[in-house]
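Hi W.,

Here's what went into the run:
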Amino acid sequence: MLQIVEVRKSYGSLVAVRDVSLEIPSGEVWALCGPNGAGKTTLLKMMAGLIPPDEGSLNWGAYGPRGDVGVFKKSVHYVPQKVALYPNLTVGETLRFFAKLRDADNLQGVLERFALLDLQNRLLRTLSGGQKQRVAVAQAFLGGGEYLLLDEPTVNLDREQADGLKEALRGFADKGGTVIISTHIADDLVSGFVNHRVLMERGSVASVS
Amino acid sequence: MRRRNLLILVEKELIEASRNRLILGFGSVFFLLAAAMSLLGFLSPGATDVQLSRVGVSLLNLAILLVPLIGLVIGSQGFAGEFEDGTMELLLTQPVELRDICLGRVLGQWVAVAAALLAGFGASGLILVLVSADQQLLPFLVNLVISLILAFVFLTLGSVISLKAKNRMMALLGALGVWFLAVILYDATVTQLLMALSGFPIMLVLYGFLALNPADLLRVLAIRLSGVNLLFGPATEAMAALPGFKGPLLSLLTIVLWSFGGYVAMLRGLRHRIFPPARRRVKDAGGKSFQTIPDERSVN
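Here's what came out:
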């Protein structure tokens, strides 16, 4: 269970996230929806431990806030909005790098699931946007994570690839994991797929359905 | 676990460095210049005995010019590029400590630059040994080792610049500025300052200036240790004035301080860039302060 209590984050005079409170149980898929600038990415980054909230707290059950950081980072996997991977590494080298850091033993399965076997020896800088996105998402499936946080994961994917991703995310949740995605294209990704939808507007939670 | 993560990061840096055009270019240029320097020394009119030690000093001069430049430039592009591209964000969500990220980066880049230096010195040494078997290896090796230390120190300084700069371009400008100051301007500036400070105890002032510039310090140390009686600038006089091993020991100690200081500055720079100090802690409902998000603490 992830418990977010009265979390607030400001950048100068701009309040990006305003007193957000949520309780997200394990084994579910949640979507943070809303227009650009609604605070989805900031909230997701706080969940991933990348930026601290100015006020409030995020409690990850056994992991935080005072828990073992190594365990936390092995349990919470994140896919940033901007696809940022090492351009001078091949797909295989990149995924092996992340797999080693997380002691993951499911590299082969991830390569197969995301149809990356044929791209293993290609340098990242030579891939298309969609192919890079698949690698970025694939790294989050390496190791035994319990939480998957994905920021706009389908932006560069075609319909078929997006459906494949949904299937993988659903499978992750069905095994007891928790998936939290952010998207501004609500209907496309969310319909019939997520358990709950959090609509965000100007940094606040407008509704949870 | 910690050593394992460090090795994983070093391996990744090495793979990237092996495809980095800047490092490959530096390696090729250094190799060609080193080989050319040795051959020209042998072929020049009147040359009857090409001394390995003398060529070693020439190579050292080449290294003093190029190694700080390449170290600063490569170092400056690392962190600045990762923050600009966003790869640092992904790396920070992995179970690694900040000190491993810093050390892994510098060590990986250093091994790549060291390979280029070894190729250059190796080519030169091979040519000279083939020409004349009667060579003294020690001064040559001293210069090689000092070039390797020089690379480490300036890669560390380049990384510090990288963490202070807003983007790659600013980092590059900063790196070029530091190189120009340390390698081109420093000796001339010191000479002018010494003339202006004629009333002060001159040797003390010289040691001070020497300690402030690792490029100068290592150059003088190499000349002192290799036993080649060639003096370069006023700083060499200061080292030569110290009896026995006092000067070299003092220099080595200063270089260790430069390296360690650079590493600490890098770690602090990375920590502050990720977690600005004013926002690192929040208070819970009871008013007790705690760290809300994971940072570089234990990962085991």
